[in-house]
Each structure stands twice: as C-alpha cells, then as structure tokens.
C-alpha cells in the first residue's frame, strides 16, 4: 500500500480514517480470486439495495423514465441488477488499481479497432467518448493494453481519495488530466494522443443545453463541441461491458461521429447522447443509474426525483 499513500501529516487526521480503512479493506479483498470478487461484489450490491434508500429511489426514477416500455416487474428487476453491477464495479475498480496485468490477459477483447486507427491516421488526436459504466476504471486499464490513452476526470472532494485515485489511475492512463486543464488537453491532441472523456453526467445548467437521453430531456454540457474544435479532432465512442457469464470483458469502438460539430450545439449534444445511449443499451444494468442524470430541470433542481406525497 505504500506506493498509494502519502507522508502528508494531514491525512493522519481522524476525518480521513474512514477513507483509509475503506481503501485498505478494498486492497485486501483484491487479493481474493477473481470469481470470488465478482460474487462478493454481487452480494455487496444486493446489500446496498436495501441500505441505500436514496440511491435506490434515484435508480428507480431513472429506470422508469428511460425504460417506459418495461413492465413494473421488469423495471424492478433491472433496478436490482443495477445495484448488483455497481457492487461488482467496486471490486472491478480495485482490479484496475492493483491486479497485475498478466492476470487479466486473455479475459478481454476489443472490437472496432479499424475506426480508431483511421481516426488516428488524421494526426489530429482523438476524443474518445466514454460513459460511467460500473466497469469505468477497469475498462481504462484494459483499453490501455491496446492503445496509450490520456483521461480527463473531475477532482474528488476528499483530498486523500483524490491523491490515491489519481495515483492508481496513472497505472491505466498516460496522462490524468483534470477537466479544467484545457491547455493540457490541447497539447495532448496536437501530439495525436487519444483523450478519454465522459460527458454523461449532469453538471448543471451552466454551459449546458437540453438534449434527449433515452427520450428524456437532459442537461448536457456543450464542452464536447468545444473540445473537438480545439484541434479539429475526430470523436468516437468506447463501450465496455462484462460478459453475461462473468468470464471476461468486451470493449467496442464505434465509428467516428460525422459530421461533428454541426454548428448547432443542441444537435451536437443530442448526437453525443445518442452514442452513449447506444453503448448503454448493450447491457443497461452495467450503467451507473444511481446518479441523478436528470437533476437539472426547468421546474427546479431534482424536480423529477421529488417523492410524491
């Protein structure tokens, strides 16, 4: 654990003890066989279903909004599966941070490399669209076995977790770039790097437009258009999923989004959301529906998540 900790005395404060204990426990559990970790993750997810009523409510609202074609029973089943996959995702994050790469060999495939190769051949760098799948960090590690990749991220509020997460992610990515560091992004693109970027969360109404996401108007940041314009870089989607039998993982690259940008920020946002939706539909239960994707609303923040009296 020494390579992931810091001698900074402030992290010895009791307020950081829960984070230190949690990370230490996760590190220990990562020593278990892979199949055991998957099973324990599924059990943890089922426990969180009962122990996290607020997150359960958010997930239920998201599933009801995004999958109206499902019956009540099918929606309820999907909600439970979302929690199971998020529990597994915690162990998969630990795999990304600490499991030796050789132990993962032979357990993953990548489809659609021709799309990325053609995009890189233009010499303008590539914006690689991602999304908040339960396999978020592990997908980055697996993808880096095929291509070097830089990643944009949002800084964690807990400084200890921020330090640990950033150091661990440096194992997966060439550069870990905080989302406000636009100059670093531009430099990476000018050097023909692949920059992974996930615009699928609700960052509020500032610099956002409403665009459909599973048919629901969602506040969607317009920064994607500006990023592409930085270096006229091609943009394409990376999907990632655990296989149904838990035997491994499949990564898939989609074709370059063209034309993009269109000159219409709302049209651009809708196109990006459509690509993300397409990736999610490969296995909806492996997406982080526990987040409030629709918290920004014309009738007030969290309008869609308010409990009915």
Structure report:
The chain has 309 residues and is an alpha/beta fold. The protein contains eleven helices and nine strands. The strands form two sheets. It has a seven-stranded mixed sheet with strand order 1-9-8-2-5-3-4, sandwiched between helices. Helix 2 crosses helix 4. The longest helix is centred in the N-terminal third of the chain and has 27 residues. 37% of the residues are buried.
Q: What can be said about this structure in brief?
A:
This protein is of the alpha/beta class.
What's the layout of helices and strands?
Layout: H1 17-29, H2 34-51, H3 53-66, H4 72-98, H5 101-104, E1 108-111, H6 113-120, E2 126-129, H7 136-143, E3 150-153, H8 159-169, E4 176-178, H9 182-190, E5 194-197, E6 208-213, E7 216-221, H10 223-231, E8 235-242, E9 249-253, H11 265-280
Parallel strand pairs: 1-9, 2-5, 2-8, 3-4, 3-5
Antiparallel strand pairs: 6-7, 8-9
Helix pairs in contact: 2-4, 3-4, 4-7
Strand order of the largest sheet: 1-9-8-2-5-3-4
The succession of helices and strands, N to C, reads: HHHHHEHEHEHEHEEEHEEH
Secondary-structure class: alpha/beta
- What's the helical proportion of residues? 40-55%
Number of helices: 11
Query: What is the strand content?
Result: 5-15%
Q: Give the distance, in angstroms, between the N- and C-terminal Cα atoms.
A: 49 Å
- Let me know the number of strands: 9
Integer average pLDDT: 93
The major sheet is characterized as:
7 strands, mixed
Shape: globular
Low-confidence stretches: 1-6
Radius of gyration: 19 Å
């Amino acid at each position: 654990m020494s390579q992931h900790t810091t001698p900074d005395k402030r992290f010895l404060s009791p307020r950081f003890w829960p984070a230190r204990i949690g990370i230490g426990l996760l590190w220990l559990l990562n020593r278990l066989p892979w199949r055991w970790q998957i099973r324990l993750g599924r059990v943890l997810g089922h426990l969180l279903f009962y122990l996290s009523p607020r997150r359960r409510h958010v997930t239920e609202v998201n599933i009801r909004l995004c999958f109206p074609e499902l019956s009540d029973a099918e929606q309820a089943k999907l909600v439970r599966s979302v929690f199971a996959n998020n529990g597994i995702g915690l162990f998969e994050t630990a795999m990304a941070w600490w499991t030796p790469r050789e132990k993962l060999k032979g357990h993953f495939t990548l489809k659609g490399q021709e799309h990325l190769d053609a995009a890189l051949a233009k010499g303008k760098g590539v914006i690689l669209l991602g999304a908040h799948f339960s396999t978020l960090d592990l997908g980055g590690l697996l993808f880096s076995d095929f291509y070097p990749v830089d990643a944009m991220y949002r800084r964690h509020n807990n400084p200890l977790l921020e330090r640990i997460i950033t150091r661990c992610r440096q194992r997966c990515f060439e550069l870990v770039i905080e989302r406000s560091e636009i100059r670093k992004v531009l430099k990476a693109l000018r050097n023909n790097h692949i920059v992974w970027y996930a615009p699928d969360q609700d960052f509020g109404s500032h610099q956002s437009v409403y665009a459909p996401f599973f048919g629901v108007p969602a506040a969607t940041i317009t920064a994607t258009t500006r990023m592409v314009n930085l270096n006229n870089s091609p943009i394409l989607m990376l999907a990632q999923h655990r296989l149904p039998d838990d035997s491994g993982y499949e990564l898939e690259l989609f074709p370059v989004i063209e034309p993009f940008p269109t000159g219409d920020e709302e049209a651009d946002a809708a196109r990006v959301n459509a690509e993300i939706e397409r990736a999610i539909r490969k296995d909806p239960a492996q997406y982080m529906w526990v987040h409030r994707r629709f918290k920004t609303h014309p009738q007030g923040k969290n309008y869609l998540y308010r409990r009915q009296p």
